[in-house]
């Protein structure tokens, strides 16, 4: 059994083990998780279906591996990494270490730690920086360590260190760290260049294989040279010159010991993937069990965000949002809560939301967009979950509509800014699928001091760097869209197309132009009583349109001048009758029952930019 501290790491390992079937990846048999004591050492643990001989690190320190066992270990790990990196986006381990690889009774290497995994079905972190805490000492790529950005070549570097340890019997230990001794790759560079300098004639054939291995059965001198060169290419200081794991696996399969003694090495299974498939099917038959309350300890009292001067702004789907003070400036503070009225919160769900939001907001594409909130920091301790945004808020769009505190120009500015953001999120990139927010709500849009809309909640965000939401943890699969903004027609089952965001956008626009908003509670009015007989804004708008169409013509042809703009807004500066008609038509098209008939956000932005108010007040609207 392996102890863990962060339950998010436990979740990732359980999900990864459920979906990634490979004979060199440990399969969990059961787990221990007691939420009440989750912050205590040992309160979280995994039990693997594995009969271990010892870790690869310990076996290398003891020198207890034969030559063919070493080659088998190198081949097995390379096969696993090639499998991981073949996904789109590639699945990165990021903390490869000989201590994280167990050798089973048959000599197979089994990777059992995935606490830093990214990519694949999880967040793609290749473009994120400042991830300095990842990786294991002695295996971290120095090129990665400086900016804190990781790529598949970072795993290749770590694999090169692993391969050097396998052939040279050198591993970086705690004693080496204490006495500040050179890393394995630093020793290898110096030794490699030293041996090359002593060879005056012919092509240099340098070998870093430990002398004790040269007398082992199945040892071939040419293999020693090939493995040395391969390891040195893996630890090249230029990541662009490092081979891919696919090429590395190909080189290993061409070794003499592999081609001549495949049954002994077990290489026939790497040449044919039928074995991996059959083994994976057999592993699926093992039952999962839950072990709880292995450990008990006292948890200190919560401190959280009590030191901030907070002013309540309003509610979002799973908590509250406040004004706060940070270094003499006004910021926005969002706090997740377990006790929310209208939405069910499952165990650890808010933790997952917060961690995903942090990853999303740290991504370079997210940082660059003016209508996405900017993250200053976060609180994640002992049940307190919160984030601090670099945003001086005026109010949420929900509150502003309820208070009727917006001018016509401000309403148009919010609509075009919000549409531009959704167009940005829905755009495909060469690496990622479009984002789908799935819980859009006027209460999730904050207005800054210039009345520009800023989206600040992403509790059901999918797509983009979160590539496959269907594979996410089971407790996140039942999506809870926000009241009044849920497209019930298009979200049957597990399908959430981007047009569902378009539906919610149409509801937001209707609220802006009609001064109507669907409400189940008013956090600023304790006397408010919800009347379920009042139709949703979307239903009210469609009913009004059908009634107007019936009045316009006995044939039911749509009225050409139909508008839902509130009469008080018609008299404001910047209002054009043609704009009111076009915005109404656009909002209603977003509510079309058949989502394939709805306009895309790209088309919506294009039509909004043609409004007369945009052309005549572009500078006032910040366009």
UniProtKB/TrEMBL annotation:
Domain Protein kinase stretches: 1-254, 307-614
Record bears the keyword GTP-binding: no
* Key words of the record: ATP-binding, Nucleotide-binding
The lineage's top-level taxon is Eukaryota
Q: Does the keyword Amino-acid biosynthesis apply?
A: no
The record's Pfam families line, in alphabetical order, gives:
PK_Tyr_Ser-Thr
Q: Which SUPFAM superfamilies match?
A: Protein kinase-like (PK-like) (SSF56112)
Molecular function GO terms recorded: ATP binding; protein kinase activity
The terms describing its cellular component in GO are: plasma membrane
Which Gene3D superfamilies would you find in this protein's record?
Answer: Phosphorylase Kinase, domain 1, Transferase(Phosphotransferase) domain 1
* Entry protein name: Protein kinase domain-containing protein
Q: Which organism is it from?
A: Turnera subulata
At the highest ranks, the source species' classification is:
Eukaryota, Viridiplantae, Streptophyta, Embryophyta, Tracheophyta
